[in-house]
């Protein structure tokens, strides 16, 4: 089978390797892989990783061997990206790997023709959720985990700093809970995208921000805040500035970048800070939200590339990281 391995920064090599069957695991044909900004950073050597590494964190597949009534041959699945770490007792782990490993980040991902996986590592996809939409389920699940962490109530104003896919999903789910998000981002195109799709309150990160927040909240400031850590060059201090006293801030994302948090402001306002980096437990809920059209994904443009364009696609993503928020780059592995 074909495998794409990153052997060094900006050096993605295609090779042929036959996967070895493992007892208790199913053979899965990888069908679609979502490549995004984080993958581009790994490719460019801007993240510390162990080489070689098979990239690709978010993928769908189809069962290719004979199985049982629940997972028969031909079943469409979402492949789990976060799996329990195997403890051999011989290798020292960093704190990020103590409990789980991230496929495509700390262990081999899905840029390959086939993988072997246990059935508990697979999630059945209904016919109403196609492969492209399924690739966004992890982002939607993480957004749900973030909203749950804040426990936003009806009518509360929640500042969402960062207008990428995750920030947009957080905003939409807050609206679903009948809260009122205020989406904040320095990029006008992101704000325009969100506003055109029902996010009523938006603001750039310029001098008008605090005035707008004060106007929307009646001068009380926000009832909580979300800071999307992977959304780009956004000042983390905004999360503290826009919050009223005794509120909560959730930092959500991959947790790869160091954030210069203003602890003095946190202490002065008596704020509670949360970190959210995994929404795996919400994947089934995310599927239901998409299947029932409670969250509309039709606004996203899925740009599908053949597998022989993987290397040029990585080069393009690494050279032009500021992609439109509605642009989803998908590799068709078939």
Topology:
Blueprint lengths: L1 E7 L2 E6 L9 E10 L1 H7 L9 E2 L3 E6 L12 E4 L2 E3 L15 E3 L11 E4 L4 E3 L6 H4 L2 H14 L6 E5 L3 H12 L3 E5 L3 H8 L5 E3 L5 H9 L6 E5 L8 H5 L6 E5 L10 H7 L2 E5 L6 H9 L9 E6 L3 H10 L7 E6 L2
Parallel strand pairs: 11-12, 11-14, 12-13, 14-15, 15-16, 17-18
Antiparallel strand pairs: 1-2, 1-4, 3-5, 3-9, 3-18, 5-6, 6-10, 7-8
Brief sketch in words of this structure:
This protein is of the alpha/beta class. It contains 10 helices and 18 strands. The model has no long low-confidence stretch (mean pLDDT 91).
Describe this structure in words.
This protein is an alpha/beta fold. It folds into two domains: 2-136 and 300-332, Quinone Oxidoreductase, Chain A, domain 1, CATH 3.90.180.10; 139-276, NAD(P)-binding Rossmann-like Domain (Rossmann fold). It is built from ten helices and 18 strands. The protein has helices spanning 37-43, 131-134, 137-150, 165-176, 188-195, 209-217, 237-241, 263-269, 283-291, 310-319; strands at residues 2-8, 11-16, 26-35, 53-54, 58-63, 76-79, 82-84, 100-102, 114-117, 122-124, 157-161, 180-184, 201-203, 224-228, 248-252, 272-276, 301-306, 327-332. Strands 3, 5, 6, 9, 10, 17 and 18 form a seven-stranded mixed beta sheet that branches. Helix 5 links the parallel strand 12 and strand 13. Helix 1 crosses helix 10 (310-319), helix 3 crosses helix 4 (165-176) and helix 3 (137-150) packs across helix 9. It is globular.
């Amino acid at each position: 089978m074909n495998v794409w391995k990153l052997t060094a920064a900006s050096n993605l090599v295609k090779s042929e390797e036959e996967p070895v069957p493992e007892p208790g695991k199913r053979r899965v044909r990888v069908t679609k892989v979502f490549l995004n900004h984080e993958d581009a950073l790994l490719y460019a050597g801007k993240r510390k990783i162990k080489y070689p590494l098979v990239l690709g964190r978010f993928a769908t597949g189809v069962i290719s061997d004979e199985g049982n009534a629940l997972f028969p041959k031909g079943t469409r699945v979402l492949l789990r990206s976060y799996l329990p770490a195997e403890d051999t007792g011989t290798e020292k782990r960093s704190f990020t790997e103590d409990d789980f490993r991230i496929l495509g980040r700390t262990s081999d991902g899905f840029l390959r023709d086939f993988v072997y996986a246990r059935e508990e590592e697979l999630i059945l996809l209904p016919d109403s959720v196609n492969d492209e939409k399924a690739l966004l389920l992890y982002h939607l699940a993480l957004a749900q985990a973030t909203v749950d962490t804040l426990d936003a109530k009806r009518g509360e104003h929640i500042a969402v700093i960062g207008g990428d896919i995750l920030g947009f999903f957080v905003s939409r789910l807050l609206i679903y809970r009948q809260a009122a998000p205020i989406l904040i981002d320095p990029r006008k195109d992101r704000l325009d995208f969100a506003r055109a799709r029902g996010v009523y309150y938006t603001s750039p990160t310029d001098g008008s921000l605090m005035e707008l927040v004060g106007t929307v909240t009646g001068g009380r400031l926000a009832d909580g805040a979300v800071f999307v850590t992977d959304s780009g060059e956004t000042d983390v201090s905004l999360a503290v500035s826009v919050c009223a006293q005794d509120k909560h801030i959730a930092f959500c994302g991959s947790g790869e970048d160091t954030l210069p948090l203003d602890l003095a402001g946190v202490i002065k306002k008596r704020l509670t800070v949360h970190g959210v980096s995994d929404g795996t437990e919400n994947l089934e809920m995310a599927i239901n939200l998409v299947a029932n059209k409670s969250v509309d994904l039709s606004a996203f443009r899925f740009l599908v590339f053949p597998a022989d364009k993987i290397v040029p696609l990585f080069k393009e993503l690494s050279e032009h990281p500021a992609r439109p928020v509605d642009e989803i780059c998908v590799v068709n592995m078939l």
